[in-house]
Write a structure and sequence with these properties.
Radius of gyration: 27 Å
Largest sheet: none
Structural class: mainly alpha
Distance between the termini: 78 Å
Number of strands: 0
Shape: elongated
Strand content: under 5%
Number of helices: 1
Helix content: 40-55%
Order of helices and strands: H
Length: 66
């Protein structure tokens, strides 16, 4: 068993690296889910357009009198 040098300012059980790794992993998972959603929507739009439809992205018109 090694003894810690009293002049060594490092803490033996620092969890900072583990927390940073966890945060990076969570950020990557969230970004991956967003990317899957965006690419899925783009794929559905392309499938609709390739099938020859003209109403793939309907635009809702608002009444100017409201």
């Amino acid at each position: 068993m090694t003894e810690q040098n009293p002049r060594d300012p490092r803490e033996p059980d620092s969890r900072r690296a583990a927390v940073v790794g966890l945060l990076v992993t969570i950020a990557l998972v969230v970004l991956g889910l967003i990317l899957v959603k965006v690419l899925g929507n783009a794929g559905r739009m392309q499938d609709c357009l390739m099938s020859g439809r003209t109403n793939c992205a309907p635009i809702e018109a608002t009444n100017p009198e409201q």
